[in-house]
Amino acid sequence: MANAHHASVVFSWISAGVILATVIYLRGWLRLRSLDLDGVQAWHAGGFILGLFLIWLATASPLSSLDHESLTAHMVQHLLLMTFAAPSILLGKPVKTLIYGMPHRLAQAMGRLFQSAGVHHVLRALAHPAVCWPGAAITLVVWHIPAVFMLGMRSGMWHGIAQASFLASGLLFWWPVVQPWGSASKWPEASLLVYLFLATLPCDILSGFLVFCERVVYPVYFSSSHPFGLSALEDQQCAGALMWTCVTVVYLIAGAVVTARLLSSGGSQEYVIWQSETQAIALPMSDPQREVV
User: Own/partner pairs for 149-156, CB < 8 Å, 24+ apart?
Assistant: First the structure.
């Protein structure tokens, strides 16, 4: 009963956070449109709201309570957070839009923060592929080591940390691919194809191991209620096959988009990791005729 009450409280807080983020984003999006500022279209807003919904679906919907009963459900959560919600959020150009949706003083403070040289240096370093790829790969592998996996199953706190790290590493991984903003630091866009290919390797190794392993890797599922009518071993194989298929398809689509973008630019385009889009945030806020209410 205590665990159920704790879970319901956590789910309520997550739902409230998702609703609040949606309201702030839509307020910022409407304000940007009213100021005739380009860059955030209706499809951007749709992507961001879809990303928030997928986060809620993975962490606060009835699905989130099934990951203790089924490895397949756990894998669906992991895929929703890392593979689908993260790029959807970044497609929504969240930084500028959320800042415009905040109250005036808070928006000014956030605008100044994102304009600071220190923040630029940190974000430029975090956005480098040499950080993004290992960050996502290490998160994936570590949380599926049996001892660490069991820790997340037994502790509500560690379970929340695992879900948060899946989302954070997903945002980090997709940052160079989606390019929600840029920078003076440039590198060839063609290297993204290698980046996406290398990203499939840890996923393929883990999913292949789960599919072809002849024993149950996570004993916690021996005593589950088997909600999908699968044995523990069949559930494990289904989870591995699901991961293998989804990751392959999504990364192929991303690679096709990058290839099309590369061909349309004649093969010479370079892209940027962190652009000072925050200048566009602060300038309108300094105009007294355009104050945020």
Answer: 149/218, 150/218, 150/219, 150/220, 153/68, 153/218, 153/220, 156/3, 156/6, 156/7, 156/10
